[in-house]
Each structure stands twice: as C-alpha cells, then as structure tokens.
Amino acid sequence: MGFFKKTYNQLLEEAIDILVKIKENIKENSDCVWTSYENATEIQNDIDKYISHLEKRNTDIIDEAYSHFLPTSTFQEHSMSNNWTKEYHKLATKFDKIYEHIKNCG
After folding, report:
1. Which of 88, 106, 71, 101 is nearest to 24 (CA)?
2. Mean pLDDT across the stretch 93-97?
3. For residue 83, what are the CA distances in angstroms to 45, 58, 64, 89?
4. What is the pLDDT of residue 46?
5. pLDDT band (50, 70, 90) for residue 105
6. Which candidate, 83, 76, 66, places its Cα nearest to that of 11?
C-alpha cells in the first residue's frame, strides 16, 4: 500500500511498531553516556509512555517522541554507541515520514 493511501490509524500503528523496534535495541547493559538519560530503563520507560499514548490514539505526545529521532538526540546517539546505526537510520527515516503525515492529518 502506498504511503499516501494509509489511514491515520495505520500510520499510528506503524509509529508504534517503530518505537517497539527502537526499544528492542535498548538493552539493560546499553551505553547511554551520550543520551540525556542515566540508563536504559529510563529510555525504555519513556518509549512505553509514547506507545501507550499512541495506542489510545492520543497524538499529543508525538512531538516529544519525534524529538528523540532528531540528529544527535537520544535514539541516534544510543544507536551509535551501541552498534545499531544502520537499523536506526532506516527506522528514523520511516518515522520522519509517518510523523509528517500524522501532523498534516491531525
């Protein structure tokens, strides 16, 4: 299905799926030194919060979630410190497109 033909709910589900994949890469023993978090659990808790809001179709949180995808922000820094940069880049590119469409629909 083309990106522009997806429904609002489908876009939200894809955003949730991306956040789940990001969370899967944040292990308890992760190096978080270049993030604004003290440890992996703090990052995971915030991701859980974003997922919970999006599952309830509350998109007020989408800007906060998106901020972690920005260059030199949490998810990119974590990916570089923990050797999953290629996967992160693919997920971030997709999240950027989803974010743009959600913001334009909302």
Report:
1. 88
2. 97
3. 21, 32, 24, 12
4. 98
5. confident
6. 66
Return the closest-CA partner of residue 21 out of 42, 58, 55, 51: 51
Q: Is the pLDDT of residue 2 over 70?
A: no
Residue 36, judged by CB atoms within 10 A of its CB (0-12, 13-18, 19+), counts as exposed
Instruction: Retrieve residue 10's tokens.
Output: 């489908």
- For the chain, the structural domain boundaries read 3-105
Helix segments in 26-105, DSSP class H: 40-55, 62-67, 74-81, 85-105
For 54, the token pair is 């999006």
Whether the CB-CB separation of 35 and 77 falls below 8 Å is answered with yes
